[in-house]
Amino acid sequence: MIKSHFFAYISKIRWLQRWGLKRNTQSENVMEHSWEVATIAHALGLIRNKRFSGNIDANALAVAAMYHDVSEVITGDMPSPIKYHSREITDAYKSIEHQAEQELFSLLPDELKSDYEAVLLEKNLTDEQHLLIKAADTISAYIKCQLEINAGNQEFVKAAEQISAKLQTFALPEVDYFMQVFFDSYSLTLDELMNSNNE
């Protein structure tokens, strides 16, 4: 049986730190971020289906979101201000990301490739999946900004403003629902969360 390095390779995303151009009170790695984006994307899919007459496979959405940044094990994490600095840089980086995805995909055993190509390769995502994963990614970034600001780190104030404005541009009712129902709790301590259950 041929051995594959696929999972060992992508597990290295735990060593990739996000927000590299900012001082952080608490570091965040790509693996942590990917888990959070997957859980939020899953919720957005369910909210769309339950509240807004959607028909998306929330489980497939969560899996695609879980893999949305694995190419960074090859490319590294490119800070957003640089990644989106110009159209040329954005296009070049996207091309590199797609090449990295293909390289990782090629490590999979042949009998598994058809199952992974729908969630690992961005080009195979539907427009709806892509939009909801991007929205979840943006919510995750906003949560990080607010946690840093709450810890007294003013380094994230401007980023929070920009990301908040970006969230509005999605104009997705499931995003509004998530923010209204779930977001405020992120600022609570564990003791506050536990005590709120007893009220």
UniProtKB/TrEMBL annotation:
PROSITE patterns from the xrefs? HD
> SMART domains annotated for this entry?
HDc (SM00471)
Enzyme superclass (EC): hydrolase
GO molecular function per UniProt: 5'-deoxynucleotidase activity
Q: Where is the HD domain?
A: 30-142
In short, the EC number is 3.1.3.89
Which keywords does this chain's UniProt record carry?
A: Hydrolase
Q: What is this protein called in UniProt?
A: 5'-deoxynucleotidase
Which species is the source of this protein?
A: Pleionea litopenaei
Task: Recite the lineage of the species.
Answer: Bacteria, Pseudomonadati, Pseudomonadota, Gammaproteobacteria, Oceanospirillales
User: What's the name of its gene?
Assistant: yfbR
